[in-house]
Amino acid sequence: MTSAHLPGLILWLPKQDPSHETIPGIGKGAYNHPVVVLSAFAQDGKVIMLPLTSFDETDLLERHRESPHKRKSYLPIDPANVHPDNGMLLRLKNPLLPLRKKSYINTRSKHEIPFEILRPYQRNADFVLSKASYQDLIEYCGFQPPLPSPAPECVPGTFERIPTPYTLAHPRLAPGSRSPVLPYSIRDCTDGPTQTQLS
Q1: Side-chain half-sphere of 51: how many Cα atoms within 13 Å?
Q2: Measured distance CA(109)–CA(31) in Å, rounded
Q3: What value, to the nearest 5°, has the Cα angle with vertex 150 and ends 141 and 167?
Q4: Residues near 142 by beta carbon (within 8 Å), at least 6 away in sequence
Q5: pTM, 2 dp
Q6: pLDDT at 84 > cutoff 90
Q7: What's the helix, strand, coil split of the chain in %, to 5?
Q8: Is-contact 53 106, C-beta < 8 A?
Q9: I need a surface site. Which of 6, 113, 173, 195 has the fewest CB within 10 A?
Q10: Nearest 5 degrees, angle CA 97-CA 94-CA 180?
């Protein structure tokens, strides 16, 4: 992974691995498909995600022509057509790098899954919802990002190295790997719990 930006990041949920534990509530159709991460950081190695579908490259209105209730569950991502009922259309941060297929987010299928099983949607490129679209998405599906756990109490006269949310969410990307990682945050406890960021 090359991005430090988890919220709105589009990744790939690969085919189900028999060696991994079964993820409750996820049907076989969700595997080998893209997902969008809702979580701001991985908690206990897991993130909350929503699955994406292309409806076999069928437009949402054509797929559920007679069911506004079913259409309500999905939000389109540009370059798909705007939602036929609410007019919403989510956009990527980089509009020049669209998804391979016209896709729709299933907003009623939130799942918590191990972050380590996810793969990049495409090598050497990050696909992330724009900040405004991510905000629209979490408001639409009623997702409230949890707050990170508080930092441990600072002991006066010491320095503490605290992993950033990115290093916590990407345990496989250790310093020295080929993928860039953000630096640790150094907390100077000499005069109180202040923090400075390494460059």
Answers
A1: 18
A2: 13
A3: 75
A4: none
A5: 0.72
A6: yes
A7: 15, 25, 60
A8: yes
A9: 195
A10: 95
